[in-house]
Amino acid sequence: MSVAKIIELSAESPKSFEDAIQDGISRASKTIHGIKSAWVKEQHVVVDNGKVALYRVDLKVTFVLD
Fold first, then answer.
1. Each residue's pLDDT tens digit, 13-64
2. How far is 6 from 27, CA to CA, in rounded Å?
3. Measuring CA to CA, how many Å separate 11 from each of 3, 20, 45?
4. Is the overall model pTM greater than 0.85, yes or no?
């Protein structure tokens, strides 16, 4: 029997939403083992002088406990 836990995290990138997702999962996997899935809860952009400066995502990450 396995038990999973869900955490929320935010990640951002100046390139794209997809890059923010990849960066968030990559960083989380350095300290969290057994990541099975992630759900994009929300997406936001930071605007500076009428242009998108940052793409930000809020993720729910599911991983199996040791």
1. 999 999 999 999 999 999 999 999 999 999 999 999 999 999 999 999 999 9
2. 16
3. 25, 5, 11
4. yes
Helix H or strand E encompassing 56? strand 51-64
Cβ burial of 25 (10 Å; 0-12, 13-18, 19+) is: middle
Alpha-carbon distance 17 to 35, whole Å? 20
C-alpha–C-alpha distance, residues 23 and 21, integer Å? 5
Identify which of 53, 50, 47, 48 has the alpha carbon closest to the alpha carbon of residue 13: 53
As given in the structure block, the two tokens for residue 65 are: 């406990």
